[in-house]
Amino acid sequence: MKQRITITILCILFYVQIEAQINIEKFNNLADNIGSSGKVSVYLSAKTGNTDIQQFGADGRLNYSGQNYSTFLVGKGEYGWNKGKEFSNNALLHLRYIRKDYTMLSTEVFGQINYNKKRLLLFRSLLGGGVRIILTKDSLKSFVFGTSYMFEHEKLELDNNSQHSNLTNHHRWNNYLSFSNNFSKNARISIVVYAQPRFSDFKDIRLLSENHLGVVLTEKLSLSINFALMYDSRPPDGIKNLDTNSKLGFTIKL
Prior knowledge:
This protein has strands at about 5-15, 35-45, 55-65, 70-80, 85-100, 105-115, 120-135, 140-155, 165-185, 185-200, 200-215, 220-230, 240-254. With about 250 residues, the chain is mainly β. The chain has one domain (about 5-254): monomeric porin ompg (Porin, Beta Barrel), CATH 2.40.160. The protein has a 13-stranded mixed beta barrel.
């Protein structure tokens, strides 16, 4: 099994965790090479003195590609303290199977479990399936559209008299557009937009936009710039509708 281990040093410009909804499309690639691969990224941050903050995070991926299919497992987690008090605590596991039925059309099924205490989310599970269509693709760029059904179960940390229910089961319509382009030999940009309305009430919608710029500086060192935006039209009580997340980081390949 071929494995690749990377250590990612992240300088966080602004931080608001958005794991209630996650961009999995950036992990989607029906690889040409048959076999297994893996990747792990970790970071540790600590500040003392006038500022007392400790933060640890890790994410990883296991992938297997066959002749006309691909499957992968993604895991992410983070924990942080501010003056001894917890301010970040979340984790996620996502499993996806993609089968290439035709040159431009693939079917996919997926499942996910996660929690995020910052957003009062004690537990979330989802299961879904649908199709992804390659609108255009060549050696430099790709443009993909996906649509699927998704069943979502959530348990929230809310009082019984809260306006938002502390236990929900919803059927959602998951849609995404993904664009990526290698606009130079060493630079790549990717833009993904998700829209997930609830079938029984289209005004209950979640939107996610994630944008990434990667620049290869040397054979071992790369620069990574990310900006993500997440909007929930009906968040839990006391939680804001809009979250943003900006990250600037460097990846060192060993």
